[in-house]
Specification:
Blueprint (H helix, E strand, L loop, with lengths): L5 H6 L3 H10 L13 H9 L5 H17 L3 H12 L13 H11 L1 H14 L6 E5 L10 H19 L5 E9 L2 E18 L5 E17 L4 E5 L4 H16 L32 E13 L6 E5 L8 H8 L11 E12 L8 E5 L11 H13 L7
Antiparallel strand pairs: 1-5, 2-3, 3-4, 4-5, 6-7, 6-8, 8-9
Helix pairs in contact: 2-6, 4-6, 5-7, 6-7, 8-9
Length: 386
């Protein structure tokens, strides 16, 4: 894309459109627009003071992006059709695409705002995007509750990862039929930043910069994608959250060695299943170790005393955690210890099963206990071992 300079847009835009643009920004200007040369206009722009100069340069940069983006006008027309909005009457008239950009910016600002979000998304670095193809998409949920949940989970992920920051703002936009975008903005990067004032002196301001994240779903291509800085260790968790919350599906595991589904044990609706005549008196989860997605090396270990209730760990997860900063979706169960107490068993603790996603917790049991505990884990949908 061509390098942006204000002069590029000014030189290739009609004076009457530039006049309308500057007036729409409430910038005082005494130029005679009918007689003004491009040099006169550039001198006026160069003499503006902050914040007017910053505002105008930001808008001219967006118009430059619009004028050089190959799909700018087709994006505008699709959005206008989806939103049942009318384009400005002179949008398709004679003139260069910079003029068309100015006309859209001044004549239909809501349509311009949405268009710029998509064009800026297209201009982000390809290396910061992660795509997952061949996804089964039955439904894309875009209701307020789903978006609120997505916001909460991803906000918590970045709070844990950065150990600071504020929650995301999420905006959902439909780009074209079947193409969904979720724009997220995380206010996180607080610090002191260098600037130059109107007297050309260096100053330092304390500011809180934003961290942009974009999630998209293309139903036509059966593809989802995530944009964020930080590589796959950031984008892959984002895509897993997105798929589970918005699409109601799980991304396929890259590690096929998993044989025990202990992840379900952190939720309140999980329960062990066994028959009355199985010989089992009770089953209790005595310990659980969890990792926190986004904070490698950090984790939580929960233990239940001998006289604790059967659902002690689930109660602790549901009641003792701050679910705004650490929702269950950010916790990955790494191991559990399950106590199986048999009827007429004289031993104090019964059978203690140490279970991880990959191990065989039954390998050291005798034949009778192996059969009973194996049936328990299979019927509880934890273990697929025979």
């Amino acid at each position: 894309m061509k390098l942006f300079t204000p002069m590029t847009v000014i030189r290739l835009s009609a004076n009457k459109n530039l006049k309308t643009l500057i007036e729409s920004l409430n910038i005082a200007c005494d130029l005679d627009w009918e007689q003004a040369t491009k040099s006169d206009i550039m001198d006026f722009v160069g003499g503006l003071k902050t914040p007017n100069a910053k505002t105008l340069h930001s808008v001219l940069r967006e118009i430059h992006l619009f004028g050089n983006h190959p799909f700018a006008e087709s994006t505008v027309r699709k959005l206008a059709e989806l939103r049942n909005l009318s384009l400005p009457p002179n949008f398709s008239g004679p003139g260069l695409r910079y003029d068309h950009g100015v006309i859209l910016r001044t004549g239909c600002n809501p349509l311009w705002r949405d268009t710029m979000k998509f064009l800026k998304a297209d201009s982000t670095p390809v290396r910061s995007w992660k795509f997952v193809k061949n996804i089964d998409i039955a439904e894309v949920k875009t209701d307020a509750d789903t978006i609120k949940r997505l916001c909460r989970i991803i906000s918590a992920f970045f709070v844990q990862r950065l150990t600071c920051g504020q929650h995301f703002e999420v905006e959902y936009l439909l780009r074209s039929p079947g193409v969904h975008y979720f724009f997220l903005n995380f206010k996180a990067l607080a610090g002191t930043y260098e600037h130059w004032n109107d007297e050309n002196r260096r100053i330092f301001n304390a500011e809180c910069h934003s961290l942009p994240v974009i999630l998209s779903c293309d139903e036509n291509k059966r593809e989802i994608a995530a944009y964020a800085e930080g590589g796959c260790e950031v984008t892959m968790p984002l895509l897993r959250f997105f798929a589970k919350i918005v699409l109601g599906t799980e991304l396929p595991e890259t590690d096929t060695g998993i044989r025990n589904n202990i992840e379900q044990m952190k939720y309140g609706d999980f329960s062990f299943i066994y028959d009355f005549d199985s010989g089992i008196e009770f089953v209790k989860c005595r310990a659980m170790t969890l990792d926190i997605i986004g904070r490698p090396g950090k984790g939580i270990t929960l233990n239940v005393p001998e006289n604790g209730s059967l659902d002690e760990i689930v109660k602790s997860l549901m009641n003792d955690l701050n679910h705004d900063n650490l929702p269950l979706e950010l916790l990955v169960v790494k191991s559990v210890v399950v106590q199986v107490k048999m009827k007429n068993d004289i031993s104090r603790n019964g059978v203690m099963l140490y279970i991880t996603p990959k191990n065989d917790p039954l390998r050291k049991l005798d034949e009778g206990k192996h059969f009973t505990c194996g049936r328990l884990l299979r019927e509880s949908r934890i273990n697929d071992c025979e």
